[in-house]
User: Fold these one by one.
Assistant:
Number 1:
Amino acid sequence: MKLSTSIASLLIPVLTLILTACQNLSQGTNLVVKAPATPATHKANLTDKIIPPQGYRFPTEADYKDDWVAFRKELPVPFHVRGDFNGDQQTDDAWMLLRKDNLGWGLFVFLAQPGRPHQIIKVEENSMDLNPQFMGIDLIEPGSYETACGKGYWDCQPREPAVLKLKREAINYIAFETASSIVYWDDEIQQFVQIATSD
């Protein structure tokens, strides 16, 4: 009896995976099976070398509510991104950290410094006029991005371009369903700059 085309198309990848695994085992290769990322495993993997500033803490599973839950499928970890933000070929981290007294939160960048603790830069601090779960961060790739002033939302201010040309990875700072901005490293002034991209 012949297998249908649909069943065969499902079995072939599985058989290929099994055969590859058997071949790797016969050659002494260790197989590593990656479990799906959760906030707990994410934290365990990435925070062992990063120490929050005094008074702040890393978000936990218990902090998932409001938009962090509503947009979890699109942005599973809305409070952390990694990238080379300042172009030194080192992997940096950006975190939205919550205050331990639950009276605020902040956006921090931890710039990697080989052999030394991270350089901690506070990009923004909020004292709870807005819940942290209404905000999120994501990685944005190098490229050209029209800014809010370029879209005509308001007049462009000095040093605020109509089109932002990113040379390296940056942070997409999101107010879910309302506004967004890009946080990027400015080589000229040697600090992070925040430019609105929507209003």
Note: The chain has two domains: 1-33, 39-198.
Number 2:
Amino acid sequence: MSIKYQITLIGVLLSALIIPIWVTEIPPLVDLPNHAARIHILANYETVPFFKEVFAVTYAPIPNMAMDLVMVPITNAVGIWNASRIFLTLTVILFVLGCFLISSYKENTFSYGPFLAPFLIYGGTFFYGYLNYVFSVSMFLITLGLWLRWRKKLTHLRIACLCIITFGVYLSHLSSIAFLAMAITIINVYDLVELDPSEKRSKTDLMKDMVIFIAPAVAFLSFIEGSGSGTVGTLAWNSLSGKIVGLASPFRSYDLWADIITVLSVLITFILLKIKRTLEFDPRLLLVASLFLLTYIFAPERFFTNDADIRIVLPAFVLLILALRPIVRSKAILGIILVPLLLLTVRQGAIVYRWVEMGNQFNSEKRLLSEVRGNNTIYPIFGKGLVEHLEKKQRPLLHIINMAAIEKGTISPNLFAIKGQNPLIFRSPMPYASLDAIDKNEWMTYIAEYDYVLTFGTSPEVEVIVSRKATLVDSTEKMKLWEVKK
């Protein structure tokens, strides 16, 4: 493919991936308002006494700080939502760059993969707002790509560069440093049994690979003994149906049929290329992707965090696509491989439409927060089963309460400020219990300790109880704001 065509495709790719981020005031990613509230508090911590009273700040080697490290320094200069969009844009650009670095580690080879694989970033983990994790996957791809290009000649400068970037992978999110170690180990084992002498690496080279993991290993041990909990938490495995749903996560957006059509077009394209004998495979990437997927099947769902197993699915499918290399010998072959790219771009347009729709609903509901006085506390009450059964397009509303921290300096107990997970932590835990708590009356006793209550999807019976302790201030289609009687 000519340079002209490649530049055009790169332009289309970046435009399709970045435009959705900038068309809405607040990208409607589920956890984003919660993350943004934490970043806002960190950025204004020294100037707001109320924040100092409620929170402590501890910057330790926590492997979950991508947003904190990137966004806090720029938030006061550009605003929290511009900082959020800049972070998301950087995540996308790094993701694309990582795909191209991996696909081009062999000289004089063309791969269709880096034009296709980056679209997987718009999948389940991204839409749910697992943004530190997604950023870390971008960093993982870049680090693996550089290592693949440099592994036969690891100079001191290159080792130093890899050490710095690998430490960045660790600080972004713990999962991706594990992916990087797995990928490098798998490729090294493959090369050890590879019959081609030119692919052999010396013991010295293998020792150099270990050097780049020294800083993350030391930091993790320090984290476990100090800021962390010192345990891996409760181990739990997902069900078969849960595993199947998780396997589809990189391909799911908001419109099921659009996703199915797009995935089928990609599969049919690769099948046609295979039939026409114009498809090659990169054995290293294919092996890594296959073992990643095998790991997903047997990995626990809970391990340090929830959804632990699903984290490996995104890099697995990205590497799988990057492992497939079509040989473009004619315009007909070029036409075949452009069809999925066109459909994926259309799918991005559908995501933009949904985001605008979701953004309008989000703005409509958050007007309640204008009635809240600053530097207070607010208690969220969600209807029974609401969190589990709320449709994807409405899930961002679950964190709308945290907009009060940004707009009014008002704090809620579900803010992401957890020891061992974030640099911002509550000095004292705020009392909270859901309607599903074992003690059905527990939540009633906590309301009096707050200034406001926000109800979402609650039954009339629950609202009658709330009305005894608080006065209704305002309501929207889905939520009600109450001020606690003092």
Note: The mean pLDDT is 89.
Number 3:
Amino acid sequence: MNLLKKFLDYARFSTGDFEKLFANVEMPPCPKVVATLMQKLEEPDTNIDQIVPLLESDASLAAQILRLANSALFGLAGKVTSIAKAVALLGLTEIRNIAIGYAMTTTVKDPAKEGFQMERYWSDSIFRAIFSKKVAEHLGVESDEAFSAALLQDIAIPILMDRWFNLYKDVFETWLQSDRRLHEVEDQILAWNHAQAGAWISKSWQLPDIFTCSIGLHVTSLDEIKRLNLGDNVVGPVALSNKVSVAFQDRSSMKEAELEAKSLGIDGDTLQELFEESKDLVSSIADALGIRAV
């Protein structure tokens, strides 16, 4: 059973259902340059000489690649001054992941609804992306995928707030007034949650299966992820980043986060260390992504 089928069977996620739900909602398309890049990278004979001009054709994407290549996220020696050098140093997989992050940062807009703080949303998303990368490095799994998959995990929330607010309003206002997690309120009121909606967006953008699974399962417990035999890739680090994010906003839930981390073999001291390292990088990575965060 392949990775995506495991997720689809577990979550009962159906593209058709979401197509019906959002039939009258204009969902954002994947930026053309990113969609073209994804298509090119699927072709077996694609080489760097073909990819560099494509990346250079979009000034905003090129600028973001260079900012990230020169950021503390990668710690490269020497200044990276060209797209060709960035591709050579980072590799096509990492460039793909940066481009996927670019797709999110250029697509997701502030819904401008009372109670929703866009800068807080970006700060939390970036923290979780950095934390996921560090956890993945600690576990020896694909850290380059972990960053972008975690950055995307809540992509559906501002989109739902903006384009589906007449129906999503009850969920959001109920959540603001409760101590429950957002996906629990969504499951009760809507019978689906933002993780599943985000997975649908990922699938509609034709992102790699690992991204769709990571987004769709990020609200799931680590024990359940291990039961599904999905704990040996980036799905685990992404899910843990969601638990830690919640825990460190509410210190009373720290014990729960530590228990979740133990499922990945991470003790409390290591969890705290990875958290502090990630928190220290949020501001600089936000600048590299060209977005405002608190």
Note: The chain has a mean pLDDT of 87.
Number 4:
Amino acid sequence: MRSATIMIISFFCAMLMGSCANSQTKSASVDHKGNKYYSRTDTNKLNVSNAEWKKILPGDVYEISRLKGTEYAFSGKYYKTDTKGTYYCVACGNTLFRSTDKFASTCGWPSFFESIRPNAVTYTPDDTHGMQRTEVTCTRCGGHLGHLFDDGPPPTYKRFCMNSLVLEFEPDGK
């Protein structure tokens, strides 16, 4: 019951709040040319202004990553993906999640039960929209990824509810 309530609240917040009305696309690929901050090996924390990110990131990605928006439920390209591989921050290349930690949560967004390493993401209390949630951001660039809930599967019982638009996926073997 609690999981269903959270799913309904998440869905209606995304639909009714309009916090990212222009981000219902299926996530266009991001061209990393010209993004000097993108690296899949560098884990050093970045200090980049939102004005600079706005020049680099596509509008829908900027809206979610820098302005804490959200894509519409069930619209993201990674929502139902079950291909084996790794998920990265689309803005900076930080390694975030493995597909082996992804599960079908039916909440409308890609869900994971843990991040790839403890310091890959950062947690911040978020009391916006009349809810008590935990915001999840990329530790390297500070970009908003989604939220963390306590209704996931074992072994962590956590649900990292992430936006597809701010994730980049690379299948195993590439």
Note: The first strand starts at residue 85 and ends at 89.
